[in-house]
Specification:
Eight copies of one chain form a homooctamer. Chain A folds into two domains: about 100 residues, no CATH class; about 120 residues, Rossmann fold (3-Layer(aba) Sandwich), CATH 3.40.50. In chain A, about 45% of the residues lie in helices and about 15% in strands. Chain A has eleven helices and nine strands. Chain A has a five-stranded parallel beta sheet, with helices on both faces. In chain A, helix 4 runs parallel beside helix 5 and helix 6 runs parallel beside helix 11. The longest helix of chain A is centred in the N-terminal third of the chain and has 14 residues. The two termini of chain A are about 30 Å apart. At the B-C interface, helix 3, strand 9 and helix 11 of B face helix 3, strand 9 and helix 11 of C.
Chain lengths: ~250, ~250, ~250, ~250, ~250, ~250, ~250, ~250
């Protein structure tokens, strides 16, 4: 029930069309369902936030296409289809043309499609990866940031072997309003960056590496236990979540 | 906001005291908060269910006493204070006399206090333990069941060493409307009981034993992986939860 | 040894055909083997319960077909073949026509076949999933519930993103005699539903999601540690078990 | 080496006091050590950030007192002594009077002492706990936020049992510039809050609860796997870290 | 129901005192409960096996004393009270004098009391420990072996640092009919012994050591994954179980 | 250095051909290498034990064939090639004809080849599985037992669903000199069998099942924590190890 | 910024071309980035160390080829491409001919390519494996050692079954300046070797084996908990890391 | 059997006092036991290595004193008593005066006593800790290094907060022949140091910190997965092991 409907109900009460008992009965039901969350949605819209995302794995191409179409039918912010395989991408674009496809290679499917990108946001976001193997997760993060209006800067391969690139980007780091660190293995880059910048740092552990990297668990734990105060962490390989976190933090 | 308040609001709209805009504004807020859950609470009351429970560990005696008093101020079902130490028990009984104290010895504190027990329920509940070391958890389960109106039968020490007691209780097992199995170590008793009875079986892994019992994790996993179809499981040492589960299942 | 055989033995004792020593010897053996469990089976039959289920993975098509045929040879309740691949399904139906096939897509094989469904049961069962990726597990659960006589209502995709569907189903939730919540990721839907309804809630963690979902372990732990009192849990992806649990709980 | 020293060195080069070879030799060493990080420190100062924190456990009272004194000797932001026991608190205050003591009860020691609080910051921060057992961690978080200039609002006990308090605080939630959710057990409150607000949400898993709560691991995993997009997480019981994360995010 | 009772029942059938229907009814019940397991017990008695053991932790002194007394009331093999504290030992000996007390220091309580030891068995059992810290577990193992009739040889401290003692005992090792290896840390001694002797080897991981010993988990896993073919393993610190395993293997 | 060589050396010393210094030098080296372990091998031979086994996975067909050939070149007990794929089997049989091939289906490769089986041993060994999915592991166990001279009896599918087969085999169980229990899921069958028989019981957890079976970890832990005293356990899916353990135990 | 540039800057200061302010500004930036680490690199060069390694998995062939080419463009030590698949190998060799290819079979890709091997180093390194299944990891280790100038000796298959090979190599072991032990399963070989030699021992756990080997975790834990004092450990399957560790230790 | 005994045996053979058969018989036994390992011990002595260490926890004071006395009775290298409590220290010094006591505070007991320190070794060893809480482990490491002849340099508190101390020690780092990094939490300091120095780096994870530090597991995993090539790791809190590792590496 949206506001016009609610206003109509109240008008009907005022005009006597609807009795108080019936109105109470209707009202007891609906607000939880609709008004409460409409308010939330409105709030979202005001912030020009993340919008809606459809996680493709496990859905049929038709399913993906249908949900995307439905979401685009309502005016609003960006709509994303994440980790989609070629068939899912094709089906969704067929029904809803105009989406931007980014090949990420993350999570099997490997593509993110974005419709109706948000208006540009001026804040500067830096996405840094420890190795080239972290690029798929970082690429998804960048694509989601772009869909939400940012123009993030991606600096890859800044681990111990390539730390000079991080240093070469010290100005960018100093200027960043938020930093996303994408790292697997022991994830030490997050602590390093967290110690250098005072901006918010979102750490994304990745499942790269082998053996004692334990599919990202080692990086995850290390980031959570980081001695760099105020680092926050999202789930393994969750570049999408990191982008959403940044979208919450910055205007 | 309860129904009278809502009705008053609608009356005010009808009488013109309140304009639609202001009414919409108020209504957008409240229902999520009050009406939606009042309905739920009402539903609870109709079922004469578990009531409210206060988990004592980490609360001051005064805190415990205050919350219990507050809960008893509103008419309703049973009010429980769980895993309370002597000071917490004393403080709560001082402010709210009449509670029934059961020494369980579980979770440090070791006592459960119950006020305002539910009316008697006829269903037969059997609580079985594998060993005497499982008795604290089982005792808490029994006390909660009693507070919710049941008269459960407790049969202890039915593991491999004492399985004859289980067999001696085959009639009780056959007659039970629900069975709670409390077992540590490898938790095999749950599978055994689950294979014998067709009644609902709630398995409670306990942290008894040592070494490879891994503080209840072994029993927990074994119960979850049980080949006895339709067994359900609650958390380690959660006799309280098992009693609540039974209270949900039975009239 | 069934009852007629036992009666014959006793008649033979009475008529002197069999000496007490020999009778004692025979009796010491048999009851454990046959009578004790025959009693159990009888009990099962009285409840028109779950019947027998054959877990297909790791068995040859011929194996599956043979066991199903054998089970159907004895009068009784429903017979299920779970997680069967196309060859197993074909072989079983070839030998035992008349089974109902449900494509679930769960567990590799992906089909459940049910023979001799139980008579209709009036109780209302609601199966709710957090996401569409949980549908295979939920579908298996629904198919097993149907084979055991229920007409469950399936409400999909009620996670945070689609919670309005849950709210739209508040009446169904209020009316349900039992609810099965199927959820992966952090499994929070189970706590939410457990807090709303007073009916028994069986939570099924699923292995959907990636990274920190840890193949269902996260949802499993979260459901076990849920602060919604009286929630019970079955193993990861065990929609079959959840259906059996419901069949134990409801008439 | 600070800027004056550097400028002197260059002057010496220009005046011929110092030869290029010697200057190169000196410069090759120092900047890594001093200039690079002085820059970082300066950056910190500009942001009026978290300042310096001393983790008390494992340090002698004298040790604590000495480090605090040393940190206060240099002009700058707030100085914190965390998880200090009474002896550590007394020793530190004796040497450095004027600190504000907050009894948190977290981590054994149980007190946080703050000197030289930061100037007031206008942003609104909400700290929400699922249960009263989460209060020690939340209290530490609040104290750190206060030391860094915020006036956070603490809303306790908003889990399933007390969710009406969260709802009663919907306005505060809507107005918050950042939200810290402190929850143990299954940590579902974080997902719930993350779905309601578009503001940044920092989730702090706590080690409250027993059994399947696994000392905070369950809440940690659930928060990391949350389906509420853009939630970020800090380590178990790390209320300090959550406060620092907020201090990074907000002006 | 023991054999005389059964024989009486059959006599009553033969004499017409008991009708077949009633006899069937009685027989359907009892054998599962009594005869089936009486048979097992008889089997046990024939082997003069392990007898009955009471695990003391979590039981009151009176509880311990009562169970021991009850077990000794029935003729049979050895009766053991394991991991008993001084009060439990005293109470049990007070009610049932004549038990042999062995101070083991394992599992808190630290004493094993044995009544009615089994007749001597000639087989040679060797109990080897890797370090002196493994002695409590080994001592319990030795005491249980002695109660079951063996005269085991204990060779302590044969880890890498003291492997010369193992070598000095090569003859004993060559002559042993069974070997129990008690080792913590990385448990490599089990593999070494398993490679030297062809006799059955039972490995007992202990929770000695610190850090990466992970309370016995490392030794447990290492023993299970041992490349010495035919090694078998019992639970962590389970010297009692290892003794029982040997008692099963040897005449 | 074998005995003839050693004797020659001593003869050379006696005859003066070899000086004491040189002899000491040679002797300091060799015994560790050869004599010590020759003694072990001799010991093995005396027991007509397990012989030598080649684990095929990760080896080339040529590699497998070569090692087997080498082992058969020395007189002795059985030689086994385990978990071999068809190419490995073919290559080995080509170079060393006469091996007995058993298709087990375990571990990818799926075949066990045995050469030079040991003379028949009279002891009775029972191999019991909980489900048909445990058959590959059990089949490997049986094949190894046969190669070492036993004529084991295999009883399959004795879990809860098929426990009547176990009961039908009670005589075989009572007569067995050793029992191997092969079970996945929650592994409760091992506890059950351990409680019925006084013979040695070797439990083999298998990686069958899904979800909370955790690839055999659940069964492994449950077997280690079993309340049936004296149960011993081998590694997950290690039917080979269980057979070797039995070969150590029985004459 | 290299030394000439720095010297030029200082010359410009001396000559007045550059003002102190501008010079300070430039200097504050650069040293962290360039000089600090140039110093480190120089240090590396002096030691003729490991050089640079490119981890191939997750990189395109072109990516691999480009990075290798870039690294070779700068004079220096060896350049390695690790775990490369055929396409990656071909692309890299096409752009940078002259690399030595070693088929290791480790990590999917299976080849290590080395360019510009270091001058010969005289130290003796022994690489020992417990089984043939450990050879891929050991082979990678050997190839890296060779690229860094060593001529390591590889002794394979020295586990319990083949310990005579280790003993046959006692002289080599006694002469080794460093030993790398590569072992899966329970990893006991590392403890054994660590107890025999006083040279540095680097243990590499491998993911060989099945079941309770837990993909190398068991060997890893056992090596970390080894009672052989002074053993050090690298990550699972990390033969590359072990070789680098040796290169750090030896001249 | 030492060399004189062996020589006597050979003399007896030569003189005819001992027949070849008897000599063979004696020789088959002894060398494994005595000569083989005597050789190892000799090797140790030549290297003036770690000597012998007695791990005090779990031993009685008398036990500790006796073993130390026994070890000192044989000429050789240093003898250490580790993690001893005051009673153990007193007893050992009473029987064997002259030991140097270092209060470490690690592992409960908290003291290391060293007798008969090794001659001075010139190599430079640097021990670096991330925080002051890592000092107990580092202190034990330093004391063991000193007992083995080194004069290590301890630099404490070089984590992110105090990294300037590491930088202030860059010269020491550059000059070190080996570095021990002692760090808890996320252990990133090891990666950082490993990237700066080309010397061997031994990383010691410590159990400091709380929550997601998981008692040292996080640091352990991070160090094992470090992207700094050639880092090696010892067990959690194993400062003793790290010192021994260094003693193996350096002359």
């Amino acid at each position: 029930m949206d506001e016009p409907t609610l206003r109509q109900l109240l008008d009907d009460v005022r005009s006597g069309v609807l009795g108080p008992d019936e109105a109470v009965s209707r009202l007891r039901r609906l607000p939880f369902a609709d008004l409460g969350f409409a308010r939330v949605d409105h709030h979202r819209a005001l912030r020009q936030g993340v919008g809606e995302a459809v996680y493709a794995p496990g859905k049929t191409p038709g399913h993906c296409a249908g949900i995307v179409e439905e979401l685009l039918a309502v005016p609003g912010g960006p709509v994303l289809l994440t980790r989609a395989d070629p068939d899912q991408v094709a089906a969704a674009l067929d029904r809803s043309p105009g989406g931007t496809v980014t090949a990420t290679g993350v999570g099997g499917g490997g593509a993110l499609v974005a419709w109706r990108p948000a208006p540009a946001r001026p804040a500067r976001v830096l996405v840094i990866t420890a190795g080239t193997a972290d690029l798929p997760v970082a690429t998804e993060c960048v694509a989601v940031l772009e869909a939400t209006g940012f123009r993030p800067l991606l600096v890859a391969d800044c681990g111990v072997a390539g730390v000079h690139r991080l240093l070469a980007s010290l100005d960018d780091l100093a200027d960043a309003d938020a930093v996303v660190v994408v790292a697997g293995m022991e994830g030490a880059l997050a602590s390093l960056v967290g110690g250098i910048t005072g901006a918010p740092v979102v750490a994304v552990p990745t499942s790269t590496g082998y053996g004692a990297a334990f599919e990202g668990v080692t990086a995850l734990l290390a980031m959570l236990a980081s001695c760099a105060a105020g680092l926050t962490v999202v789930g393994i390989d969750n570049g999408f979540g990191a982008a959403c976190a940044v979208a919450r933090m910055l205007p």
